[in-house]
Each structure stands twice: as structure tokens, then as C-alpha cells.
Design goal:
The chain has 281 residues and is of the alpha+beta class. The chain contains 6 helices and 12 strands. The strands form 3 sheets. It has an 8-stranded antiparallel sheet, sandwiched between helices.
């Protein structure tokens, strides 16, 4: 009897430990299972109809700078709760975009395109400040490790696997050189590309965010042979109140940045969306 009770006590301890570890993993954004996220988690039925009709739904929150869906101010909004978006709560900048891309690409080709970090180079966006199209990502290339600055070839997979990681550097036109870790997940036809900074984001010598506090996450949900529903979120911790209140940061600028990434994703799917590149003026 004593031996059985001891076994039950040990088993209970193990289970509690696994639960706590699972909660910690979820909190830092590590996916807990291979189960895909459903499109209904990220879009309502009404939004799905809207994007399928050709609309792109964009909204941005920026603390102290007007929050909203670009045209009409709203308050802070929450992003869908998924293992891939975990940990983003109360951040000072959120940009969200929903769209439908009618395309039926080769799956492996799309997978490799999402791993092609060098393709970010030359991406343009509409600058609200300059009222003109401007370079967004001036340079981009894959690196072998987070501490490296040496260019290596983009990863080229011969088959689609459930997850794949890589590192890359970009030269942002406003934020300078940034290093990201890229994680690409594939779950029953759903692609999830999660990029997050592994170096602090600074501007004029001021730390805007710390390691891991700039994230760009894109979901591509298949719609049979018709195309993909896209849900994308950019999130940035802005730890400088001076920067937030200076007027240097603009919610419309973040809207145009996420739109540039959506247009880039459409290009990977074989669609020219340059005519849709302006989200806000």
C-alpha cells in the first residue's frame, strides 16, 4: 500500500511538472502540438466574405498616436490566441492584416519561397512622411547563426517538414540593421511563418525594444484549390515613452509596412498586388 501511494505521489508530481512546463512553453510562444490553427480563429465569417470579395482589412494600434483601423480610431485590440502569437499582450504597437490571395501554387515551391529571406531585399512601401513610395527593406540575406553577419545561401528544402528554422539580417530604412530568427511551420496545409528579432531594436541611440520584442507572424490558410486566406500580425514593444510621444512613430506608417509584407507574400503566390500597396495616406 505504501509503495502504491508513493507511486501515485511520484506520478502526480510528474504530471504537475509537465503541466507547468507546458504553460511556460506556451507563454514564450513554443507550439505545443502539431494541430493546425483554423482560419476561423483569425477571421470571422463576415471578414472571410469581405476578403474573398477583394478587400484587405487593416488595423493598427499605436500607443499615444491614435489607435485604430487606419480610417477610424478604436481602442487597443487583442490578436487571436494561438501558440504562435503567445506572449503578445499589452504591446505598444500592433498591426493586423487580413486578405485572400487567389492562387494555387506548387506547395514545395511556396515552402521554399517562404524560406527565401533574401527576397525581402528591395521591398518598397508607401511613406506617409515623404508621401511617396520608398525602400522599406534595403538589404536582406540569410545567415548561419544569430551572431553572424556573413551571407549564406537561402535554405532550399527538398521536402516539406513540420518545422524549419533559420536566421537572417535585414537593413530597415528606419531602424537600420536587424537580425531575426525565422520559424516556418506547416500543419495540415496551413503555413505559419514567424519571424522575431534576436537583437534589440534601437533608433538614435534609444532602445525601442529588447530581444524578441519585434515579431512578424503570417498565417496562410488553404481554401481548397481556390487560394489562401492570409492573416498577418506585426507586433512591437516600444519601451521608450519619449519615442512614443515624440510623433516620430506613426500608425499609418506601420499600416503601410504590414501591407508591403502582404504584397510581398502575394508575389510569392504569383500575384502582382502592387496596385494595393498603399494601406493609408
Amino acid at each position: 500500500m505504501i509503495r502504491k501511494e508513493r507511486i501515485f505521489m511520484i506520478t502526480g508530481t510528474i504530471i504537475r511538472t509537465l503541466i507547468i512546463c507546458g504553460m511556460l512553453l506556451y507563454a514564450v510562444g513554443v507550439p505545443l502540438s502539431a494541430a493546425p490553427v483554423a482560419v476561423g480563429t483569425c477571421m470571422s465569417a463576415q471578414e472571410m466574405r469581405a476578403v474573398k470579395s477583394g478587400r484587405i482589412l487593416t488595423r493598427v494600434y499605436l500607443k499615444h498616436n491614435g489607435a485604430g483601423n487606419v480610417k477610424q480610431a478604436t481602442g487597443y485590440f487583442s490578436i487571436p490566441a494561438t501558440p504562435y502569437t503567445a506572449g503578445i499582450r499589452g504591446w505598444e504597437m500592433l498591426a493586423e492584416e487580413k486578405a485572400y490571395i487567389p492562387a494555387s501554387p506548387d506547395m514545395l515551391q511556396l515552402y521554399n519561397s517562404l524560406l527565401g529571406y533574401s527576397s525581402y531585399a528591395g521591398m518598397h512601401y508607401y511613406s506617409v512622411t515623404d508621401r511617396a513610395m520608398k525602400p522599406f527593406i534595403r538589404e536582406a540575406y540569410t545567415i548561419a547563426s544569430p551572431g553572424s553577419v556573413r551571407r549564406v545561401r537561402d535554405s532550399r528544402a527538398v521536402s516539406i517538414t513540420p518545422s524549419r528554422n533559420g536566421y537572417f539580417r535585414i537593413r530597415d530604412n528606419r531602424l537600420g540593421w536587424l537580425t531575426f530568427k525565422g520559424e516556418l511551420f506547416y500543419r495540415n496545409g496551413v503555413f505559419i511563418a514567424k519571424n522575431y528579432s534576436v537583437t534589440p531594436v534601437t533608433r538614435y541611440g534609444v532602445t525601442i525594444s529588447r530581444k524578441g520584442e519585434y515579431r512578424m507572424i503570417t498565417f496562410l490558410f488553404p481554401d481548397g484549390p481556390g487560394g489562401y486566406y492570409l492573416y498577418s500580425v506585426h507586433a512591437l514593444r516600444i519601451r521608450s515613452e519619449v519615442m512614443l510621444k515624440s510623433g516620430f512613430l506613426n500608425s499609418k506608417s506601420f499600416a503601410n509596412r504590414i501591407r508591403a509584407c502582404t504584397v510581398h507574400t502575394a508575389k510569392l503566390l504569383g500575384k502582382n498586388w502592387n496596385g494595393k500597396i498603399v494601406a493609408a495616406r
